[in-house]
Structure formats: C-alpha cells, structure tokens
Amino acid sequence: MKENQTKGLSILLLFISPLLGLFCGIKYLSWKNRKLIIILFFIMYGSLLQYGEGSDAAAYVRLLDGYAQMSLSDFFIRLKQIILLDPLPDSPNDVYVHTLAFFTSSIMQAKFLFFPIVAGIYGYFYVMAMSKILVWEKHKHLTIGLLFIILLFIIHRSVTSFQTVRTWTGMWVLFNGVLGYHQTKNKKYLLLMLCTPLIHFAYFIISLPAFIAIYYKRVSFLVIIGIYFLSFLGSINGGGAIDIAKDNSLAKEKMSSYYRENQYGESIDPIMVLREKTQSVWYARYGKTDSVYYGGQAFTFFIILAGFYRKMKPIELALFATGLLTASLANFGSFSYAFYSRTMANAVIYILATVTLMAIRGAFDKGIVRKYETINFFKWVCILVFVPKIVYFIADFLVRTSIFIVGLPFVGWIDENLNESIRGTIGEFL
C-alpha cells in the first residue's frame, strides 16, 4: 500500500478508533506523514479529556466562563497589563492563555475548542521533537535497553501533560528552539526560544541556561561540569529572592506562592508542605517527580563519570550542556520546590534526549565501549530509577484518557455525560 493511502486510512481510523489510527500511523508511516497522525490524535485526545475537579484543566474551564462576554477593547486592556507584568484581577498571567481563552470563549463562542487547540499546539511541538530525536536506520536492531531509553524520552512529558496548558507546552517549545538552533544555527529558533515567556511567566528564568549554553564552546566543558557539581553545595537565599521580587506585583505574587514565612518567622515552602501531607500510592508519590529527577541526575553522573562527554557528537554535547546548566539552575533554586520541580523537569528532557541520541547511534553498545559489562550495569541502574515514573504514566494515562479514545470517539462528542475514563470504565465492570 502506498504511503498516501496508508496516511488516509490512518486518518479514517482515528475517527473510528483513535488508538488504532495512532498505531497504524506510527507503525506504517515515515516521520513526514506520521507527524500529522500524532497531532490529530492529540487534538482528539484533547476533545475527550478527562479531568478531576481540582486539576489544572478544571481551573481553565472556570477561567473560560469569564471570557464569554469579553469585548475586544477589554481583551487588549488585559493584554497590555499582562505584558507589563501587572495583570488585572481574575486575569491570567500569560499571553498564551489569555489569547486562547478569548479566541475560543469570546470570538468563537465555543469553549469546548479550548483543550483541542491546546492539545494540537502541544502535540505539534511534541511530535517535532520526537521526529528529530527518534531517527534510526530502518533495519536497526532495537535492544531492550534502547527501547526503554526511547520510552523514557517519549513519556517524560507526553499526551497526558498538555492539560497543564502552559508549563509543558513551554518546555517543548523551548526544547524545539534549542534543538533547532544547534542543528541549523538558524536564528528563527532563537526567536522561538524567546517566545516561551509568553506561554509561561517562569520561562523568563528557566530559559536562561538554554541561551547561555549557546556559547558552551567558548569555555572548557569541564567548567560547565564544575558549575553542575557546585550547584549541589548550596542554593539561593529564598528571603533575598522575595525581597528582589517585591518591586513587581506579579513576581511578588509568584514568589509568595513558592516560598514564604510562617507565623514564627521560619522559612517554608508551601508546595513542599502540601506534598508531605498528601497521602498517595508509591508510584504517584515518587513517579511524578522524584523518580524523574533522580533518574535524570543518575544519567548525568553516568555520562560524566564514564567520560562519555568526551566522545559526544556536537548536537549531543549542546543538549547535554543545556541540561547541565538547567539542572544547575534548579539546584541553586531548590529553596522553592515548585521552581526546582519545573526547572529540573526541563533539565531532564535535555539529558534524556542526549542519552537517547547516544543510545540510538550505539554509544553504549558492546564492542564500542570498554568494560561493557560495567557500563551496561550502570546504564540499567539509571533506567530502573525511572520504574515509578513508568508505572505512574500508565496509571495517569488510564485516569485521564477517555474510553472513547479506544473506539467510537463521536459518542463522547455527542453526549458528554457518556464520557468516562478508561480506569472508570474498567472499575464499573470489575
């Protein structure tokens, strides 16, 4: 069957069984046509998104209600204040959400389009990253270790993550900018990197290591490694950061949600306090954050101590430098768990991309490295650190994914009351 016919069949299957259409598109199409299938799958996934009352998605649904009768002049007034970093009450802090909310809720009068559009944008940048990293010869033998490394890169922030709307969309946009610039040196990718603060305010800070890493060749790579190790020895003073933030209302608001003092004048991290009080199963407690961050650090130590950084390809070295500097920023900012968490998640995507590129070209293979048994052992130790993440991803996917992603998606579009998660449907039968 010709590729165009297979693409047409895959698109048709998406409307019958999105999962089956996705499978056919990935298995039988080249990346040129596969990208469209994956983006369409994300859009359909967004149209059937399952979310809890306290989730990020639920908060955005409530936000959309305030945009239904918003005038164009009011939109621009609020946009101006967002750009000036002084958003009006009940207004989002970011240009991205403000624009999408106005377009779907006010102009289109179709709030239900918000998440499909968000999913489509997220899916576009996600699949563009995948198409540039996950490339190998057609008949290449894929070992179990390589498949696990590829899986870790795919699920780090995948289809279930777009419902946060800003944070991980910003991550994939920044990653595409970094990857594209180091591959082509085209300055349009620098512009893409500069756009990330429009998606999420935090990328004013999180994107800084990516820009610094552009000049990594001007210093010895040992300097970057030294900064990374130094970052474990201390962090920025939280109180000092709050004092600096007092000059701007938005910065002050953000900092107070990340770091504050209790009634005794003691420094506390409200996110960490809440996290410690939360009772959850082991894979939810460790798989969402700790497993990912420790796993990323483990791979980093593995690459450095084994000396792999000396034999990297230029694109691998550029991504690794970005990952090291971003991880250093996360460590220096560890006084706030929320800041640390977001920044380290960004760092891990560069580290996993580096490891994936190296694994695909066989950098860890027998006959290529000395002391293969030792290298292979520690490689698997790094992979196993991510086990809670893998289990958490599966559980989270079952909770957030509509049963109609398996088949008959139009039923979920016709009657929202019939829309149920895969886990909920399984629970009813059991």
From TrEMBL:
The keyword Ion transport does not apply. This is EpsG family protein. Keywords: Membrane, Transmembrane, Transmembrane helix. The chain crosses the membrane at residues 12-29, 36-52, 112-129, 141-159, 189-215, 221-245, 292-309, 315-340, 347-364, 376-395. It comes from Flavobacterium arcticum.
